[in-house]
Design brief:
The structure is a homodimer of 479-residue chains. The first copy, chain A, is α/β, with parallel strands linked by helices and 479 residues long. Chain A folds into two domains: 159 residues, Alpha-Beta Complex (Aspartate Aminotransferase, domain 1), CATH 3.90.1150; 241 residues, Aspartate Aminotransferase, domain 2. In chain A, the strands form four sheets. A seven-stranded mixed sheet of chain A has the order 2-8-7-6-5-3-4, with helices on both faces. Chain A is globular and about 65 Å long. At the A-B interface, α1, α3, α6, α7 and α12 of A face α1, α3, α6, α7 and α12 of B. Chains A, B: This is alanine transaminase. Chains A, B: Its cofactor is pyridoxal 5'-phosphate.
């Protein structure tokens, strides 16, 4: 009580009274190193002298921020949808206008400012279904199984929400690859699920070993109830592209062990290495025959944020659910209705991705030129990254077969490891922090993704390459 | 096992094995009645004969779907941001171009397709802060306390996530008004929190009674740990505008009882009734002096979806946190980073709302004209709704002082109540379902928002009015 009798109180909400599961959440991609990078940027703006003039953010796969240009056709349609007065102007090609008209007709009151159906705009879901059918060589796709989402993250978290329950030894376990994309560990921590790690095989270009899956599962069954298996293909942060044979093995494993499959396939167009090809889990599932395709439960996720689009800011995405129990699917539909609808501009963009300009349409040539140029540049960067990194003593980098990152192994000398430990830091965090302070390059330490004990890595996106890695050469002297 | 020895299995994820808290979620605004309305629309398209030719969706506050026109200036800037080539065209006013340039400069790579900072674009948060300061007569606002969100719903759910924990009698309780907006009950169910109801006083135009708050809290303390108090002002679904005196009482109550305040103020520009005025919780808090303004924890929510904007599809919004513990706020910042960022077009739109054309700028006159026309129309509809509903025997409707809905009381005859109960339906659901089947009008039954036992209501948005309510006259004969 204060003197005048009202109160002088502690906070209601403190670190001790708040939800403990939130405290357990970690998200390295935007963690302490990125906080520090933002501070440094501010210091640079304020005129503080540094050994560099700008921060190079290689912490995140943010294509446009790294200079990738948006696809003209997409942005024309989005402008038309935002301000339909432009439909009266001559400056836009007819196919862009037609796409915009079609999207606007499907919106309440003809406005992208209206809520859509919670599952997403009907015609967009239909277009997604047709895209999936084309991609998978005719395997049927029911638009009712397609849910538009706020980026892929939203879909992944929603699926995990449906799956996770139980207490103690019957608590839901979810198998995720290590290294993983930390959305998974963050969502599992928040839901209080048991994170069941399976390690990718770095020696074999980050492939999945069935024996590793088996032993990880057997171990997990001793203390939780593993119900789902998550795969990221092409891999993030590890850049591998799973072979058809590997995917087949994973599906058979999931069927035998009764696991719900979650396939994060947001990098499906980002495949660079010769001999590598993207195989969707759904397609392989159906090729295994009805015993599998009628039974194995699968959710697959895609997004507008990666591939040649790189439109992260629009938060567009979809998920397709296959063999989901009808009652559960009704619960899913109810659950997504609470957030009303995914952002409509992101839905429109998703539509354009799955229904891009066709041969004969006025925008087709430009679209293909832009798409090819972007994917070629990404492929070139992937190759260069691997090559340059492997010339650096102490760094070993697997081929970047796909996705948008490299995840090289770094040998840190004992001295650095000790110094880091004395500071209570993970050694690779210590390394990345030094690199940031001395060169302005912002990477994410491997410990944020998970790695075998005693190994150290970093994840790097693909920014302006030469500048980035030539600097790294110099820096690596101190380790 | 099937004959060829693989498996024929039950689903992994069934209604029995799924997360039970998700099953407890209900969201009436998009519930069974809306499902049925969508079916009926499909039937109408397929040529099925009905006593009406279109479904009138009054289930949701979706302004554009109901014919409200977007603000020209907002859409011009959004088009410019989407397709910056348009900056070279003469067709846009200079102030629209300047706003677009400023937003694009704040985006990574000058693209709305880049991720923003997780908390939202810096300059947008600064603009929000200045807006709040103007609105609240100079009470200071720190942009670091502003978080851009994916609609207001996202902010509300995020705050609840931080608050809810504990088990059994120490489980977090959250006080919500009854009638409530069902996002609250849905989020609390999903988080497994205890929903603590306090009833609004229908006899006194849905005002808040302090004695009701007190008795509700005292009762709740017997079985849970009430930590937060949610207020929706102007009210949804009930349309009341809280008086300054009432808000002061609520703040004093929260201070005395140590409750975290959550003020849902998304209808802050939707105030129609004479003598009514919007008072932000923050402003009143600061007017009560430092004992309160230095202590009471408050989160306030706003959105681009309501008011004169009605831009629901963009999912723009913000929350401001006041007196939040620094460590908790760091956790909040971490938590929002997992979803990467709110949709950037929605952030841009939020910026335009808080930084609209100023006197002297080329778009100012048109902007003010459009804004005033929209708000006047909404005010007129609010008045007409109340008047027309009150002429119907069996219906009593409080003045619609603000927001975008009416929530009239309906007297249902015993016969209808019995019929409904025989069908296992809430009587007002039965009524609304009949109304939908016979007239095509889609309302939400009061039971979806909560109401005193034995009373029945519906919530109606404000669609093309005359058509709507004249039909209702006829229908009401059967009750």
């Amino acid at each position: 009580m204060t003197e005048n009798g009202v109160f002088s109180r502690d906070k209601v909400l403190t670190i001790d009274t708040m939800n403990p599961t939130v405290k357990n959440v970690e998200y390295a991609v935007r963690g302490p190193i990125v906080q520090r990078a933002m501070q440094i940027e501010k210091e640079l703006r304020e005129g503080v002298k540094k050994p560099f003039t700008e921060v190079i953010k290689a912490n995140i796969g943010d294509a446009h921020a790294m200079g990738q240009q948006p696809i003209t056709f997409f942005r024309q349609v989005l402008a038309l949808c935002s301000y339909p007065e432009l439909l009266n102007e001559n400056m836009f090609p007819e196919d862009a206008k037609n796409r915009a008209r079609r999207i606007l007709q499907a919106c309440g009151g003809g406005s992208v400012g209206a809520y859509s159906a919670s599952q997403g705009i009907d015609c967009v879901r239909q277009d997604v279904a047709r895209y999936i059918e084309r991609r998978d060589g005719g395997v049927p796709c029911d638009p009712d199984n397609v849910y538009l989402t706020t980026g892929a993250s939203d879909g992944i978290v929603t699926m995990l929400k449906l799956l996770v329950c139980g207490e103690g030894a019957s608590r839901t376990g979810v198998m995720i690859s290590i290294p993983q994309y930390p959305l998974y560990s963050a969502a599992l921590a928040e839901l209080g699920a048991v994170q069941v790690n399976y390690y990718l095989n770095e020696e074999k270009c980050w492939s999945m070993d069935l024996s590793e899956l088996e032993s990880s599962l057997a171990e997990a069954r001793k203390h939780c109830n593993p119900k789902a298996l998550c795969i990221i293909n092409p891999g993030n942060p590890t850049g591998q592209v799973q072979s058809r044979q590997c995917i087949e093995g994973v599906i058979r494993f999931a069927a035998k062990e009764r696991l719900f499959l979650m396939a994060d396939e947001v990098y499906q167009d980002n495949v660079y290495a010769e001999g590598c090809q993207f195989h969707s889990f759904k397609k392989v599932l159906f090729e295994l025959g009805p015993e599998y395709s009628d039974n194995v439960e699968l959710a697959s996720f895609h997004s507008t944020s990666k591939c040649y689009m790189g439109e992260c800011g629009f938060r567009g995405g979809y998920m397709e659910v296959i063999n989901m129990d009808a009652e559960v699917q009704a619960q899913l539909s109810k659950l997504v209705s609470v957030r009303l609808c995914p952002p409509v501009p992101g839905q429109a963009l998703m539509d354009l991705v799955v229904n891009s300009p066709q041969p004969g349409e006025p925008s087709h040539i430009t679209f293909m030129k832009e798409r090819t140029a972007t994917l070629s540049l990404l492929a070139e960067k992937a190759k260069l990254t691997e090559q340059i990194l492997n010339t650096v003593p102490g760094i070993t980098c697997n081929p970047v077969q796909g996705a948008m990152y490299s995840f090289p192994n770094i040998s840190l000398p004992e001295k650095s490891i000790k110094e880091a430990k004395a500071l209570g830091q993970a050694p690779d965090m210590f390394y990345c922090m030094k690199l940031l302070e001395e060169t302005g390059i912002c990477l994410v330490p491997g410990s944020g993704f998970g790695q075998k004990d005693g190994t150290y890595h970093f994840r790097s996106g693909q920014p302006s390459l030469l500048k980035h890695f030539i600097t790294a050469f110099h820096i690596l002297r101190w380790v």
